[in-house]
Design goal:
heterodimer, A: 286 residues, alpha+beta, four-stranded antiparallel beta sheet, three-stranded antiparallel beta sheet, 30% helix, B: mainly alpha
Chain lengths: 286, 258
């Protein structure tokens, strides 16, 4: 549905004065994890009559997600104001449009909110499944740009259990998630999982796992033909940093610069690791 | 896992030098320079023995788009959407392994000289993934058509795909419209036509266009994306009488793909 002119044959809560009250969206906040794009938003409805339809199950929130380049067009429904949507990352590319609706879940007879404009006085309407009760507008986000803005390591790197019990970690730059994928032996992964929830070890892991993987990726990024890794989130992040990150955009990005660049992107992980080890040692001594 | 693709810079250069390279398009045999090629390590290499696209044949040049689409899609069924929107892959396939196929499918010599450059850009290149590529690039359509219509719950998972390739209206207009990108809606239209062969025996394209117009009108006040396939089929069935009455208003009776 394309809501261009906000004229309907019955009162709809939206930007005009058909129905008093408001329906707005807080968000969406876009994040990425484990190959999924996660959209977190809150529906903010200010109308008691329409809220009652939502509460009795006659209506529901609906978010339409549309990506023209991948022919992805799908509706996601929810009855609670907090709404989380997860979509496989590889189903979306570039611009993604979102539209926010409150729609009839079942047929609703004698529909007329008390807060409807006086023009509708004396009328009653029958709504069918999919008819609109409220509209909160639209927004869009760009999948690659989100990768670019994500400074958190998790936006371009993931640590997963490998299919081997022991032995060294492997690094995959061609993982379908688009991230640098580090596979640990299952034994190492189990121990890592047990420790990684304690934030005090983060800096240590940066030196031990993240730094070597990033250094490898930077070397590959420099050595490979210009668009060898086009479409991969990690390569987009590095491309963006090469152009815009003041910590590294003045570097020559020659292959021998890879260790220096990786350390700069991670804000000198060895210094942070030393501090973290010192803190852990102090805790033990106390 | 070593499919070749063109570099982006090479595609830009090729796009701006179609006129200069016209002979290669007319006679075939695109010369690939090593420096223009990338190795796409995450995609199974095309096996020319397994994907042997069928040329148009006979005096009417009957195309085998459906058969070709199933062949290409079956081979690259595990290709993900990110890979399938890589314009460098499709442009490479059009110029190297399938150059001869495209020359027969889209004969350049039948196009007036003034229109040849545009014709080549339209059918040999994918400048951006999406609607235009789906409409005009045969190889792109051969993968995306089955991807959008494959239904593993059917006895023949390609039944809807077969209907899709039976008529140009579907690929040029219906599946590429905003409503058509709603997959349950596209499947509902194709399925309704398959399930009512008598109704669509005559004036099929006119009748399908009527369905598209009506659904588009209804979508102006109802969120069809909220409905499932059966509910959309019920809406179509509600104006069956009008579909029955629809006849050709001049022009050809049918618009099958050629």
């Amino acid at each position: 549905m394309k809501v261009n002119s906000l004229d309907f044959p019955y009162p709809v809560l939206c930007a005009n004065d058909d129905v008093a009250g408001s329906y707005k969206i807080d968000g969406p906040y876009v994040s990425r994890d484990s190959g999924k794009i996660k959209l977190s938003l809150t529906h903010i409805l200010r109308n008691h009559d329409i809220q009652a339809y939502l509460d009795n199950g006659s209506a529901e929130y609906m978010v339409e997600v549309f990506c023209a380049k991948t022919f992805f067009r799908q509706a996601f429904f929810g009855s609670k104001s907090d709404h989380v949507i997860e979509i496989n990352e590889d189903l979306l590319r570039d611009q993604v449009k979102l539209e926010f609706y409150l729609v009839a879940k079942n047929d609703i007879v004698d529909y007329l909110p008390k807060t409807a404009h006086s023009d509708y006085k004396g009328y009653k309407f029958t709504l069918r499944k999919g008819d609109l009760l409220a509209y909160a507008g639209n927004t869009q986000f760009s999948a690659p740009k989100q990768w670019l803005t994500g400074d958190a390591v998790g936006s371009f790197m993931q640590i997963v259990p490998g299919d081997f019990r022991t032995g060294p970690m492997t690094i995959n730059l061609l993982h379908p998630s688009g991230k640098i994928s580090i596979a640990l032996s299952t034994e190492d992964y189990d121990e890592y999982q047990a420790l990684q929830s304690q934030k005090r070890f983060d800096d240590i892991f940066h030196s031990a796992i993240v730094f070597p993987a990033l250094m490898f990726a930077v070397s590959e990024f420099i050595a490979a033909p210009e668009d060898q890794y086009e479409g991969y989130a990690w390569a987009s992040v590095l491309k963006d940093k090469k152009q815009n990150d003041p910590r590294v955009n003045k570097s020559s990005w020659a292959i021998e610069d890879a260790p220096k660049i990786a350390q700069a992107i991670l804000d000198n992980p060895f210094s942070r690791t030393l501090k973290a080890i010192t803190n852990v040692a102090l805790e033990i001594n106390e | 896992m070593t499919q070749f693709i063109f570099k982006s810079a090479c595609i830009s250069e090729m796009g701006s030098s179609v006129k200069t390279n016209l002979k290669s398009y007319l006679k075939g045999g695109w010369k690939v320079r090593k420096e223009d090629i990338l190795v796409k390590k995450d995609l199974k290499a095309l096996d020319p023995n397994k994907v042997r696209l069928l040329d148009p044949e006979g005096s009417g040049k009957k195309s085998h788009d459906y058969e070709n689409a199933v062949m290409l899609f079956e081979y690259w069924k595990d290709m993900n959407v990110t890979q399938a929107t890589d314009v460098r892959l499709w442009t490479y396939l059009c110029h190297v392994p399938f150059m001869d196929f495209l020359r027969k499918r889209r004969p350049i010599e039948e196009i007036p000289e003034a229109g040849r450059e545009a014709h080549i850009i339209k059918h040999w290149f994918v400048m951006s993934p999406g609607t235009a590529a789906f409409k005009y690039n045969d190889l792109y359509l051969f993968w995306w058509g089955p991807y959008l219509t494959y239904d593993e719950n059917r006895k023949d998972p390609y039944e809807l795909t077969k209907e899709l390739f039976s008529m140009l209206d579907y690929t040029r207009h219906i599946l590429t419209s905003v409503q058509g990108k709603n997959r349950p809606l596209a499947h509902a239209v194709l399925e309704y036509v398959i399930e009512n062969p008598d109704l669509f025996e005559q004036f099929k394209s006119e009748k399908v266009r009527l369905i598209a117009r009506r659904l588009n009108f209804i979508a102006g006040y109802r969120t069809l994306i909220a409905l499932n396939k059966q509910e959309i089929k019920n809406i179509i069935a509600s104006f069956r009488n009008d579909i029955e009455k629809e006849k050709a208003k001049g022009g050809s009776e049918n618009n099958s793909r050629s």
